[in-house]
């Protein structure tokens, strides 16, 4: 028979022969609940005679005494009414005596467990274990596929925006000034963040950092030249020890030290940027990512470092993928422009002119061409090249500085020394060059300069005596006309006849003459164009 636990409803299969007619106590093996299990027939209510027996019938009243009549034949005795005893309950079934389990026996304390339930649970566990072995990897694979699909969709959605940012970065990189280069680097970084699968912006970022390093390196060179000039001025003041030289010497020394410190800082920053760009390019080259952009950036790096062999290799590889790229032509022309050979500089000027004819937006080529033209002595051409550069980018610091220097050097000698051309050295008063070539600029009005030591000083140092001396010097040609330049004899006799013409004898009370500045060094032609 099947029995069910009253608490947890667990089914059990039990031999009903083990149960007593009135039921037996059974303990559930799952919840340990004890309940009474009854056989099927005992569970039904017993029959009415068995459950409620009828009471015996009341005896009849006693009979009256018999009349004296002749005795009749005796009647058979009446049977007394029977009292019906309750029928004993029939045995449920024929067989052995009813089994009454004891509390200590296993039949009562541990009811038999349904074999079907035990086997089913074990089989279910086995099925779940087998299902889990392939279900977990399947779920993980599905999650990975969904994540990859989402990432791919997002990257494709940002691809147009990344392309626009990269184009803006390349345009800013062509403007060449420090602010534009920093903005170009920011554009490339944002494009790389939006489309990390596209490695071309990373190579372009390395190229922008190389150009920025070149700009910083040339700025450091300019600062070093200024620091050297101030240090020379400090040494001059210390040697001459003119009145008030201590304060001027201290100011010049402090300025020289500050310029030298700034130059070292810019040079270190340039080296850091170039090293980071080289590392990024090596990583991209090892991953075979964006080969064209990587080769172009490596060509720029080789031009910045001055490695001609590396430049030729990188340019040859880049031209296979980027034919006619203007940055490759710029890198090749930069090495020739940096050479001290005039022939190499001529080739660089020709190559840069051809480059600007096809790609005028590369402003660094304009600046490099202007520097090369200045080094070749073509200052007016260099000024025109810089004017075109400033028309495209008015905030280019390097072009502004270079144009100011070239304009000051190319202008005729003014009344006040420009600082870029050496002052005329004082010569003999009777020399033809002192009369014809140096006297007119010193006087500033076309009249011959007085032949004395004061006349050889720059007009800017003594502006007041110039008009006053014009009157006394006017009658001198009529009294003693100057000999022609072709007559050297009178000119040679002039020093002995007039001792006051010696340049070493300035009049008493006259201010000290400034020492002529040395000839300016030519503008360094570097790959960069910052200052």
TrEMBL record:
Pfam families per the UniProt record, alphabetical: TPR_19 (PF14559), Zn_ribbon_4 (PF13717)
Sequence ranges of Low complexity compositional bias: 39-51, 426-473, 489-503
Residue ranges, compositional bias (Pro residues): 52-79, 474-488, 504-523
Region (Disordered): 39-109, 413-531
Keywords (A to Z) from UniProt: Membrane, Transmembrane, Transmembrane helix
Transmembrane segments: 134-154
Domain Zinc finger/thioredoxin putative: 1-36
SUPFAM superfamilies attached to this UniProt entry: TPR-like (SSF48452)
Listed InterPro entries: TPR-like_helical_dom_sf (IPR011990), Znf/thioredoxin_put (IPR011723)
NCBIfam families the UniProt entry points to: MJ0042_CXXC
The protein's name: Zinc finger/thioredoxin putative
Organism for this UniProt entry: Anaeromyxobacter dehalogenans (strain 2CP-C)
């Amino acid at each position: 028979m099947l029995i069910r636990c009253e608490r947890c409803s667990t089914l059990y299969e039990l031999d009903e022969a083990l149960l007593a007619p009135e039921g037996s106590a059974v303990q559930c093996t799952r919840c340990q609940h004890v309940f009474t299990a009854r056989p099927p027939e005992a569970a039904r209510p017993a029959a009415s005679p068995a459950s409620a027996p009828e009471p015996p019938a009341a005896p009849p009243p006693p009979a009256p005494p018999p009349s004296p009549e002749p005795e009749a034949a005796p009647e058979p005795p009446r049977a007394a009414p029977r009292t019906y005893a309750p029928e004993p309950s029939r045995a449920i079934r024929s067989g052995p005596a009813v089994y009454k389990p004891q509390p200590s026996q296993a039949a009562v304390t541990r009811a038999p467990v349904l074999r079907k339930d035990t086997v089913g649970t074990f089989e279910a566990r086995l099925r779940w274990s087998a299902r889990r072995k392939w279900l977990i990897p399947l779920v993980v694979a599905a999650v990975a596929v969904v994540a990859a699909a989402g990432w791919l969709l997002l990257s494709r959605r940002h691809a147009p925006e990344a392309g626009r940012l990269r184009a803006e970065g390349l345009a800013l990189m062509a403007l060449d000034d420090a602010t534009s280069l920093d903005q170009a680097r920011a554009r490339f970084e944002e494009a790389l963040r939006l489309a990390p699968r596209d490695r071309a912006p990373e190579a372009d970022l390395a190229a922008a950092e190389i150009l920025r390093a070149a700009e910083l390196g040339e700025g450091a060179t300019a600062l070093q030249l200024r620091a050297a000039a101030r240090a020379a001025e400090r040494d001059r003041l210390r040697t001459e020890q003119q009145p008030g030289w201590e304060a001027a010497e201290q100011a010049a020394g402090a300025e020289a030290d500050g310029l030298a410190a700034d130059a070292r800082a810019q040079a270190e920053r340039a080296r850091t940027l170039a090293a980071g760009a080289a590392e990024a390019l090596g990583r991209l080259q090892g991953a075979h990512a964006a080969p064209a952009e990587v080769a172009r950036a490596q060509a720029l790096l080789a031009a910045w470092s001055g490695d001609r062999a590396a430049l030729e290799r990188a340019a040859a590889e880049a031209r296979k993928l980027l034919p006619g790229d203007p940055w490759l032509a710029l890198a090749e022309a930069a090495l020739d422009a940096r050479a001290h050979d005039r022939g190499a500089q001529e080739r660089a000027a020709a190559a840069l002119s051809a480059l600007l004819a096809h790609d005028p937006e590369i402003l660094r080529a304009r600046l490099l061409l202007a520097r090369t033209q200045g080094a070749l002595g073509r200052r007016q051409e260099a000024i025109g090249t810089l004017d075109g550069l400033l028309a495209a980018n008015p905030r280019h610091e390097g072009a502004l500085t270079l144009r100011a220097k070239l304009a000051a050097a190319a202008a005729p000698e003014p009344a006040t020394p420009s600082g870029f051309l050496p002052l005329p050295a004082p010569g003999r008063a009777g020399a033809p060059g002192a009369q014809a070539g140096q006297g007119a600029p010193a006087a500033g009005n076309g009249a011959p300069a007085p032949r004395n030591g004061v006349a050889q000083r720059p007009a800017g140092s003594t502006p007041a005596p110039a008009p006053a001396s014009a009157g006394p010097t006017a009658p001198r040609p009529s009294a003693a006309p100057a000999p022609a330049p072709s007559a050297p004899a009178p000119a040679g006799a002039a020093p002995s006849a007039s001792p006051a013409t010696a340049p070493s004898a300035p009049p008493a009370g006259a201010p000290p003459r400034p020492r002529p500045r040395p000839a300016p060094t030519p503008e360094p032609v570097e790959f960069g164009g910052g200052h």
